[in-house]
Design a protein that fits this description.
The complex is a heterodimer of chains A (602) and B (317).
Chain A lengths: L15 E5 L5 E5 L1 H11 L7 H14 L20 H12 L4 E4 L7 H14 L6 E5 L4 H12 L4 E2 L10 E5 H4 L4 H6 L2 E7 L11 H8 L1 E8 L8 H11 L7 H8 E3 L2 E2 L2 H9 L2 E2 L2 E2 L9 E8 L3 H20 L8 H9 L4 H14 L6 H14 L4 H13 L3 E4 L3 H13 L4 E4 L5 H13 L3 E4 L14 E4 L6 H11 L8 E8 L3 H12 L9 H9 L5 H11 L3 H24 L7 H8 L3 E2 L4
Parallel strand pairs in A: 3-8, 3-11, 4-6, 4-7, 5-6, 7-8, 12-19, 13-18, 14-16, 14-17, 15-16, 17-18
Antiparallel strand pairs in A: 1-2, 9-10
Helix pairs in contact in A: 3-4, 4-5, 11-24, 12-13, 12-15, 13-14, 14-15, 14-17, 20-23, 21-23, 22-23
Chain B lengths: L2 H14 L3 E6 L2 E5 L2 H7 L3 H10 L7 E5 L2 H11 L5 H20 L14 E3 L5 H13 L2 E6 L12 E16 L3 E11 L5 E3 L1 H6 L3 E2 L6 E3 L6 H17 L4 H26 L4 H22 L2 E15 L3
Parallel strand pairs in B: 3-4, 5-11, 6-10
Antiparallel strand pairs in B: 1-2, 2-3, 5-9, 6-7, 6-11, 7-8
The chains are: A alpha/beta (602), B alpha/beta (317).
InterPro entries (chain B): YqhG (IPR024562)
InterPro entries (chain A): DEXDc_RapA, Helicase_ATP-bd, Helicase_C-like, P-loop_NTPase, SNF2-like_sf, SNF2/RAD54-like_C, SNF2_N
Keywords (chain A): ATP-binding, Helicase, Hydrolase, Nucleotide-binding
């Protein structure tokens, strides 16, 4: 008895008899059953069991799809609790867009869940069996896991050439478009194609775009949080990939909708055209009810030896800067040194060794570097590490420690190990499998995760609500990224953030700048980029801080310079807060109108 | 199917496949599977081909089948509340699962080779229940059965006449870019050619046996199976003709609109193509897109059989 695979074009079994039922539709009788029954009659068996026969009918009846437009998938997903906007988006794509759509929700509103719901619904209805999902390499396993665990969809990650034979395959687009995979995929008919991070397809001339264009697909979902970045043409290309002609030809589009590459016209019509192929949900402004962030700065006086090293490094850096006649761009490496000295002696040491190697053998600098190494030698204990240990013991709960430096990470791992505390590392250079492994260990046995990287996708650590900033990046977005790993949808507890801050060092200034002036640690999510966008017209905050540090004559001067930067920032902050929240660009306004505002609650 | 229906279904399945139920509660079964059930449910094709080739005595698996997770967990919690052991066990098991998951992409719970009894949650839509469904369909496709006579009326010298019926359980699919389905059960008498609806339901009230009962004779068929099948199809077709096809009209309209849109897009591009190569590529794209649109929207009604059989029923129908 054939499954209902006769949806697929081209391979209809010959035992199907088709005739016209009425003016609108043909009727197909699948007579496979008859041939089989005839054979068994001729051979007088074998005959099946009566109970199984009845069970088969019951099973089929329970799976029957009673209506065109309800959402069947929910009754098979008892553990999934989608948010209302995710369900309404799925319905819209299924019933109004016929399964070809751009899902353009803002980050964090669950585009993957929406795509999963749509896919599951089509699979349950027997309209989709063969699926191709193309995503960035770093997201492959996450997609596979979510589809399997949340949706019970047997997706597999593409690993070898024969993986393509599976019904639901997740692969990286860069692999898929290369030989020999490319030809295999172009010879398949996909009932559904899903592309994540689809803004990478906005340029028509790229091989990615052309490859996706050539794939044969019935339904198609493009997922992106940024359907337009610079240019209205990007939007046009994306929609043309999905449904060529939806916005007319390129020249029609230019004539009807474009004033300048960033300025649209006939907004109402454009919006209407967009709303038939795109859904974009946005975070509400008032309703974001994340749990609280509780920030604690922990001031630490350095030990005499550590202070000696700090002063020596400060002197060294300033001397080099004065020798360079104020050319601060070449001095950025030295700034790093100054920052590392606030983290651990190990971090400084590594940089000094590299510096030593790069210096000419007869340079007088070598002796000076060596002097610094002597200071390092004198240091026996790390004040911050000791304090961190104390904090961890006190909280007796999962905690993530962030540091900027690999050497500090190594040092902490060893230090904790020698004190019988299980910690696992996490860094950008690890491959995907190792990263996942570390996450699993942290979720399971280890109390502590020590991370040098907060960016990158896929680290969702809602099960943990303590963060220790062992040292701080000078780029506020990176600080926000760190916190965002933990303080996000699904976090049940208030998040406690500890900032270690060595007194009398540049770090003290940075902590006060980020905490008091920008109020970074408690800022409403999404507010920070608006402030920085205006602040960093020419140089980034990081660069301006470096400059201030190098040019400052003494610590009073430095305090003043940093305080000036802080005042500018806090001024911008007030400005941003006062402005009304209407999206700034006309494109933004149109995009935002295609969908609803979602009040997100964790 | 709710939890109770699933529970009942699983019990009857285990019974029908001759699996041995070792333990059961309203929320679970522990069963040693029969070879039949093991083949269909445990995903071990290599093992079974080994058994076939060597003639070795098969060792079937024992499984914990949970039909009501909530109830089951409350039960077990109550049963071993003083013991704190299992949680640590679960932690290690979960870590092992995760470790295998990392190298295999994803691994279903049953493959964890720690020697524990495979545990499966059978809720509606779960993969294992789907496998049970598929197994039932595979093992319950074609039957040939006789109605068991009611004892009292059986006089030793009296023979009851039985009529053969073709029973057809059909799934009708109404599909375009959306879809709905219907179930139709037809019975066609091979003696008279009369066709009745709701045949499967009326069968379910009778007791059936695979052997011809004593004191029963079967009437000669007046029509062929082929003819009976045609009668069934025609009856169904007549019924379906009377339905409302606004959905198909709507789909055809969408289909036409979409075709017009791509035509409007591609025809100028093809006309303006600089050389033959570009023109051919554009033409190919155009045709591919048209084919996709038909594939997506074309309305169709498909009738296929879920299962079917020959049923000998008392009386001349």
């Amino acid at each position: 008895m054939t499954q209902t695979s006769n949806d697929r074009k081209g391979d209809q079994p010959s035992s199907i008899v088709a005739r016209k039922l009425n003016n609108h539709v043909d009727i197909h009788f699948d007579r496979t059953w008859f041939n089989e029954l005839q054979q068994r009659l001729d051979r007088n068996g074998p005959w099946d069991d009566w109970t199984m026969y009845q069970l088969a009918v019951e099973a089929e009846q329970s799976k029957l799809i009673g209506s065109f437009d309800d959402l069947q998938c929910m009754r098979t997903l008892p553990t999934l609790e989608p948010m209302p906007h995710q369900i309404s988006t799925a319905r819209k794509v299924l019933h109004e867009m016929s399964g070809r759509a751009i899902l353009a929700d803002e980050v964090g509103l669950g585009k993957t869940i929406e795509a999963g719901l749509i896919l599951k619904e089509y699979m349950m209805r027997g309209l989709v069996s063969r699926v191709l999902i193309l995503v960035p390499a770093s997201l492959v396993l996450q997609w596979v896991r979510e589809l399997n665990q949340k949706f019970g969809i047997p997706a597999i990650a593409q690993k070898k050439e024969h993986s393509w034979q599976n019904e639901v395959v997740v692969a990286s687009i860069d692999t898929a478009k290369r030989d020999p995979h490319r030809d295999i995929l172009l010879n398949h008919d996909y009932d559904m194609l899903i592309i994540d991070e689809a803004h990478k397809l906005k340029n028509k001339k790229t091989t990615n775009y052309q490859f996706v264009n050539q794939l044969r697909k019935k339904y198609c979902l493009l997922l992106t949080a940024t359907p337009v970045q610079n240019d209205l043409d990007e939007l046009y290309n994306l929609i043309t990939l999905l449904k060529p002609g939806q916005l007319g030809g390129q020249s029609d589009f230019a004539a009807n909708f474009v004033v300048d590459k960033r300025v649209p016209k006939n907004e109402d019509r454009l919006q209407e055209a967009l709303s038939s192929v795109m859904v974009r949900n946005r975070r509400g402004d008032g309703g974001i009810q994340f749990t609280k962030r509780i920030v604690k700065n922990i001031p630490l006086p350095l030990s005499t030896e550590e202070q000696a090293l700090y002063d020596a490094v400060t002197g060294f850096v300033r001397d080099r800067y004065n020798e360079s006649n104020g050319d601060w761009t070449s001095m950025l490496a030295l700034v790093t040194l100054q920052r590392e000295v606030c983290s651990s002696r190990d971090a400084v040491f590594v940089t000094l060794v590299n510096l030593f190697k790069k210096t000419a053998e007869d340079s007088p600098l070598r002796a000076k570097i060596w002097e610094l190494v002597e200071f390092i030698r004198n240091i026996q204990a790390n004040t911050k590490a000791e304090k961190t240990m104390e904090l961890i013991r006190e909280m007796d709960d999962k905690v993530i420690i962030f540091t900027e430096y690999r050497a500090t990470q190594e040092y902490l791992l060893n230090y904790f190990r020698s004190h019988n505390l299980i910690a696992v590392p996490y860094r950008g250079g690890m491959n995907r499998g190792k990263k996942d492994w570390m996450m699993d260990l942290f979720r399971g046995r280890a109390q502590v995760l020590i991370a040098t990287e907060a960016g990158g996708e896929g680290i969702n650590l809602q099960f943990c609500h303590h963060i220790i900033n062992f040292d701080l990046p000078w780029n506020p977005m990176r600080v926000e990224q760190r916190i965002g790993r933990v303080h996000r949808l699904g976090q049940q507890n208030d998040v406690k953030i500890y900032n270690l801050c060595t007194l009398g060092t540049i770090e003290e200034h940075i902590v006060s700048l980020l905490h008091e002036k920008i109020n970074l640690f408690e800022l409403v999510i999404g507010g920070l980029d608006h402030i920085l966008e205006r602040f960093e017209k020419e140089d980034t905050l990081e660069q301006r801080l470096s400059k201030a540090m190098l040019e400052a004559g003494d610590s009073t001067d430095l305090r003043k310079r940093i305080s000036d930067l802080g005042d500018q920032l806090s001024h911008l902050r007030t400005q941003v807060a006062e402005e009304d929240p209407i999206p700034e660009t006309p494109i933004g306004a149109i995009l935002d109108a295609v969908g609803q505002t979602v009040e997100v609650r964790p | 199917m709710n939890e109770r229906q699933v529970h009942k279904f699983v019990g009857r399945y285990l019974d029908a496949t001759d699996s041995r139920i070792i333990e059961k509660s309203p929320a679970h079964y522990i069963a040693k599977l029969s070879p039949h059930a093991d083949r269909d449910l445990t995903n071990r094709p290599f093992y079974w081909s080994f058994v076939e080739r060597t003639g070795a005595e098969p060792e079937t698996m024992t499984m914990l089948l949970i039909t009501d997770k909530k109830k089951y967990e409350t039960q077990t919690e109550e049963a071993n509340s003083p013991a704190a052991g299992p949680t640590a066990q679960g932690g290690i098991g979960a870590a092992a699962d995760a470790a295998i998951g990392r190298s295999m992409g994803f691994v279903h719970g049953t493959l964890n080779p720690t020697g524990r009894m495979p545990r499966e949650e059978l809720h509606f839509g779960s993969r294992k229940l789907e496998q049970l469904f598929a197994s039932a369909k595979l093992g319950g496709s074609y039957v040939c059965l006789f109605q068991e006579p009611e004892r009292k009326s059986a006089h030793p010298l009296q023979s009851t006449a039985y009529t053969a019926w073709l029973g057809l359980n059909m799934k009708v699919e109404f599909a375009c870019d959306m879809k709905r389905e219907e179930f139709h059960s037809l019975g066609i008498s091979l003696a008279t050619g009369q066709c009745v609806e709701g045949f499967h339901d009326s069968l379910s009230t009778l007791r059936m046996t695979p052997r011809l009962p004593p004191n029963v004779h079967t009437a000669k068929n007046a029509i062929t199976f082929n003819k009976a099948a045609t009668i069934g199809e025609q009856a169904l077709e007549r019924k379906l003709k009377a339905y409302d096809y606004a959905w198909a009209q709507g789909a055809s309209k969408r289909l036409e609109e979409e075709l017009a849109t791509v035509q409007h897009y591609y025809e100028p591009l093809i006309a303006a193509a600089e050389d033959d190569e570009i023109r051919a590529a554009m033409q190919e794209q155009f045709e591919r897109r048209q084919a996709e649109i038909r594939w997506q929207y074309e309305p169709r009604v498909t009738v296929s059989a879920i299962n079917c059989g020959i049923f000998y029923l008392a009386g001349i129908g």
